[in-house]
Amino acid sequence: MSICAKLIISRPESAGHNARREVIVLRIDKPVLIGRHPDCDYVLTSTYSSSLHCSLFAIPSQNGGCIVSCHDHSRNGLKLNGYRLLAHKFTCVHVWKDRREKIELFDPTPPVEVSRPARTKVRLSFVSRSALTIVQEVAHFIISNQKLGSGSFATVHLAFDRSNHSYKQVACKTIRLTSRKKGCEMDQVCREAVILEELKQGGGHPNINRIFATHRDDEFLFIFLQLCTGGDLFTYITTTMERNRRICEAEAKFIMFQLLSGLKFLHDKAVAHRDLKVGGIPPRLHVLTNSQPENILLHAPGPYPRIVIADFGLARPRSYQETFNVCGTVSYLPPEGIAALDTDHLKYIGMPSDCWSAGVILYIMICGSHPFDNESTSFDSSLNWCSHIRASRDSESQTSEHYRSTESRLKGRILDGSIEYQPYYWQKVPNAKQLVSSLLNPNYAQRATVNDALHSVWILSELQLLKMHFKQRCVDPFLNDLR
Ligand SMILES: Nc1ncnc2c1ncn2[C@@H]1O[C@H](COP(=O)(O)OP(=O)(O)OP(=O)(O)O)[C@@H](O)[C@H]1O
């Protein structure tokens, strides 16, 4: 397991003249438990600390750095660099900045991706508010320079909600409202906030990114969102595979159950997401900017994660109606979406399209390859798919011509509809295979709906267990956060 980050820590009990500075080595995805209990990885002697005080996680961030996340288990809360943080409410994030990374808040150029972030040795000191540069204050939020990610429309930064003096950490999605944006684009930009507000009504859902507030000035729209500190599902799948493992069937089922529960919540409100994906050959724009936003995030690091569906920028209300406006990532579009994309008079419907994308995602989780976007990969090695995706993101040599021909072959495979189920991966999971093929039904009228999928044999066979873990890992923490 490769080293991800080093934390320099001063023991509070040895503060003063002979203060000892020690180094905690954090490895990817292996939490370090800190507390008085002798079984902790880092044992404290101070009686002010709890038996199990907190744990630290390191995960690779999308921009090639590393996020250190601190989870408070203590009874009385944590004190960090002199600041008291509320018990059970605190998540500390430090995004390590590569020297090449730009740090201005609205810098449109995304950071250069570091190919193997896990191998990069970095020195991290514990983050304090004074270590962050505050770039802007908006209403009762402070936006920092720590970039969490970016997409074609938005830049997302770490921010703090200073109401009640809690300094709760949130994500701030900033979208530039340029005068050059056409009326319909402006509507689309603002629609994301409107849809998220609507989804929050009645309590929201643990698998849907929660909106806290929006603020708009002449130049920018700021959307303040629940912070996800676990990275994204694509990174989770690929880092698991890089360690020569795949997500096991049970974990894939738990993640799929959440995805379907989140989608059911959306579809019951007639909202379609229309851009669900975990990796994929990015649209040309993303190749140019060398950045690929991911829309399924992990609420916190660690195995059997709680997933959060994010980026409602392309979501559509009343999605039972057909639309000409096809959107999303080509490799996650269903055949009727591809047909509508290329033929002016054809329309498609958003909800069956989400179900198709969910089928693609389940396929990837089970075998580590994309069912259609598999051109330069051999199915023998699913890791190839990840490298292929990364290479296409990095490649600046991709010409428009090359891109167009790759995309047109990809569309051909989706329209053709034949899917290869490698026996090595699929023989042992016949019920998962059945669910994938019902979601990847080329005929959208016969395609499994979210309800059908939730009633599939694969899910029903372990429904009680899934519900129990869903309550413990998703619902209870979600309700706790609301309090
Ligand atoms: N709530 C959040 N917590 C942590 N990181 C986030 C959050 N929301 C977004 N991000 C990060 O920012 C990236 C870009 O966000 P998002 O996908 O919403 O931008 P976008 O410009 O709307 O994307 P697209 O190009 O798909 O339209 C995400 O991939 C993720 O890495």
Polypeptide structure, described:
The protein is α+β, with helices and mostly antiparallel strands and 483 residues long. It contains 13 helices and 20 strands. It has helices spanning 183-200, 233-242, 249-268, 284-289, 335-342, 350-367, 383-394, 400-416, 423-426, 430-439, 450-454, 457-460, 463-482; strands spanning 3-10, 21-27, 32-35, 42-43, 54-60, 66-72, 78-80, 83-85, 91-95, 123-125, 134-138, 141-150, 154-161, 168-176, 211-216, 220-226, 296-298, 307-309, 322-323, 348-349. The strands form six sheets. A six-stranded antiparallel β-sheet has the order 11-12-13-14-16-15, covered by helices on one side. The protein has a five-stranded mixed β-sheet with strand order 4-3-5-6-9, with no helix packed on it. Strand 13 and strand 14 (168-176) form a beta hairpin. Helix 3 (249-268) packs antiparallel against helix 6 (350-367), helix 5 (335-342) crosses helix 8 (400-416) and helix 6 (350-367) packs antiparallel against helix 10. The protein is globular and about 70 Å long. The protein starts with a strand and ends with a helix. The model is unreliable at 86-131, 281-291 and 377-382 (pLDDT under 50). The structure holds adenosine-5'-triphosphate. Adenosine-5'-triphosphate is lined by residues 62, 148-154, 156, 171, 173, 209, 225-228, 232, 275, 293-295, 297, 310-311, 313. Belongs to the protein kinase superfamily. CAMK Ser/Thr protein kinase family. CHEK2 subfamily. This is Kinase-like protein. Residues 142-459 form the Protein kinase domain.
